[in-house]
Amino acid sequence: MSQVRKKTILKDANKENLYKLLLWSSPELTIDDMGDTTVRMKAMKKLMTRIHPKNFPNNEDALNIYEDIQTFYDACCNDLIDEAEAEKTQQKSILRKRRRTVSPATIIDSIVQFSVRQKWAHLNDYTRPVPPYRLVSGKLLSPLVAYQCINARGAIAHGKRPTLIYSWDNAHTCDGYSVSDVFEKHGGSKSIVDGNTDDIKLELVKNGPVVSVSFIPDKAFYLEHEKNIVQSRIRKHHYCLIIGWELTEFGEVWLVQNYSGDEVMKIGFGTYSIEEHIIFPKDDFITTAWQKGPYFDTNMSQYEGWLQKKSIELSMKTAEFESFMGLLDEQGIYEAIYDKTRFCIRDRKKIAHSRSAMLQDVKWNPEERYWTVRCAFNDSINCISSDE
Fold it and tell me: DSSP E strands: which ranges in the chain?
């Protein structure tokens, strides 16, 4: 591990230094191979497999070195892309400079590990719905996993954990439905049926979890993961939620959330037919409400960055202001401010984007003839609402 670190620490991220690094595990490489994405990535995976932290259980720095190597590799690849673009531009014309668009496959190929819980931190330890008991039948497993996928993608669209979710009751009501049946109830579905791992990875990175409907565990897998597998689905299709992947000392594995949400299983690429049929929602759920009302819907495109701000000043014409006041349960302005009456500001074009708020101040601008309504968001640092 120390030899590998010496090849990256304080080194410039360029083709020559990447070549020296990869030679450590792939001595057959040539400097020209650095321009070939497939060869370069194959050598990188070989290196990452050899230096995986699990191979060095007594080395406290193993994980840091592993992550540093990945960062160094990514930086070198970016430099290679810039270098290739510069050469291409120079050949065409010095007056026609244009940065090359990197294909999604190239980007995915350089990612050694990914989890939706890391990209969207509010999904960490978030699993809805959760069964109240251990499942014994696959008839409930399929709607359960389908709604877990929908809720997770809804949370991604919402930008935080939602307060309106599809519950265990929703899943139980769909007893006997297939995953596809549930998705059809909520806008339809899309599939990846050719086992293309790059396509699956790209969908995970862009949009969130996917469901495998082709995973077939055998008896040995069941005995190893007994609490995570429905016994009646041994040697049958066992629907499961894929949330990412990583490179281990044994090769690439899918990260699979168990149906009760309290464990992540690792299932090797190409094993148990897991990637032969992948299904996911067609809808992005951006027009679905994920937070309880009452709602004040308005065009929020004029308030840039409003989802990250602690407060906001809304400009309203009289008709819109009257609609806003209707949210306050016939309270007066000062009563609503004093009582911290809750309401939900929602983007009428993307209603998944919403935030719980309370009124702080109201002013009338007689010259411009509009109202300025100042609101504080309940999910900001200094004012956290119980419903968030």
Answer: 114-115, 189-192, 210-212, 240-248, 251-257, 264-268, 278-281, 295-298, 311-316, 342-347, 350-365, 370-377, 379-380, 383-384
Contacts for 36 with CB less than 8 Å, ≥ 6 apart = none
pTM listed for this prediction: 0.74
Reference 236, options 264, 260, 255, 213; nearest CA is 213
Max CA-CA distance within the chain? 78
What 3-state class would DSSP assign to 349?
A: coil
Residue ranges of domains in the chain, CATH in brackets: 2-110 (no CATH), 116-281 (3.90.70.10), 295-384 (2.30.130)
Residue 163 DSSP one-character state? S
Q: Kindly report, residue by residue over 42-71, the tens digit of the pLDDT.
A: 888 888 888 887 788 887 677 777 777 777
Q: Answer yes or no: is pLDDT of 383 > 70.
A: no
Q: Tokens 């909520």 correspond to what residue?
A: 186
Based on its alpha-carbon atoms, the radius of gyration of the chain, rounded to whole angstroms, reads 26
Work out the burial of residue 51: count CB atoms within 10 Å of its CB; fewer than 13 is exposed, 13-18 middle, 19 or more buried.
Answer: buried
* Helix, coil or strand: residue 29: coil
State both tokens at 12.
């410039």
DSSP for 289-318?
--S-S-EEEE-GGGSTTTTT-SEEEEEE-H
Count the helices and strands in the chain (H runs, E runs).
13, 14
Q: Name the band, by pLDDT with cuts 50, 70 and 90, for residue 105.
A: low
Task: Give the 3-state secondary structure of residue 160.
Answer: coil
